[in-house]
Amino acid sequence: MMASPASTAAYLMNVTVWDVEAERYLRDTVQHCHGQGSGGVPSAFLTPIVEIAWVLSTLLLARFTTESLGEMNISTLAKYMEEALEHGKGNVGFAPEVMADADATARVQLALSLLGRDPGVSMQMVSRFSCTTHFQTYPGERDSSVSANCNILMALLHCMEPEVHETSIINATDFVCGSWDQIAYKDKWVSQ
Question: Where does residue 49 fall: left (phi above 0), alpha (psi -120 to 50 degrees), or beta otherwise?
Fold first, then answer.
């Protein structure tokens, strides 16, 4: 259920025939999450693609090198992200087989660009998530996200040919700056 413990639990509460695989997913989630059996679980689990991309891109932006992080480790992680992009035709979700989103896609592209590996898929990201004035986290979503636009902006600025994406870069920048100018700044991921 989109790697969501809550959705999986709601699904199981309403099935007419018990789903052993869904139950196994919930049991594994409860056992292996930070709550370690206490019942506390995250809103999504497992999230390997976005976790790898987010941490790696953050370390690389902080000027950690592939040598300091371990060349073999980085090679393994880069290959994993490249395969995820290939499998998703240029876009990825936070986990394998989960609907693609702008945050995960942008962070994977950013990490690969920072490693000097041209992901070459920015056009797919732009076409899938762009609106007239900004980028959406998911196609057709109701609420916009400043953080998703920041992630896409960073990915586009660090890609091999950022000038190709001038209009998208300007749109994302205008959206982020305009959001900060609002009296009641709101992002879908931040509770007020």
Answer: alpha
* Token code pair at residue 154: 């960073």
Mapping DSSP to helix (H, G, I), strand (E, B) and coil, where does residue 102 land?
helix
Q: 40-98 pLDDT, tens per residue?
A: 777 777 788 999 999 999 999 999 999 999 999 999 999 999 999 999 999 999 888 88
Q: What is the distance between the alpha carbons of residues 137 and 128, in angstroms, rounded to a whole number? A: 10
User: Hey, what are 123's tokens?
Assistant: 């056009």
**Is residue 123 classed as helix, strand or coil in its secondary structure?**
helix
Spatial neighbors of 16 by CB under 8 A, at least 6 apart, are: none
Q: How many residues would you count in the chain?
A: 192
Instruction: Report the interhelical angle of 102-114 vs 122-129 (nearest 10°).
Output: 160
* Residues near 1 by beta carbon (within 8 Å), at least 6 away in sequence: 7, 8, 10, 11, 22
Which pTM was predicted? 0.82
Contacts 24+ apart (CB under 8 A), 175-183: 175/133, 175/134, 175/135, 175/144, 175/146, 175/149, 176/146, 176/149, 176/150, 179/144, 179/146, 180/146
CB 119 within 8 A of CB 75: no
Burial of 70 (0-12, 13-18, 19+ CB in 10 A): exposed
CA 42, 153, 187, 191 torsion-angle sign:
positive
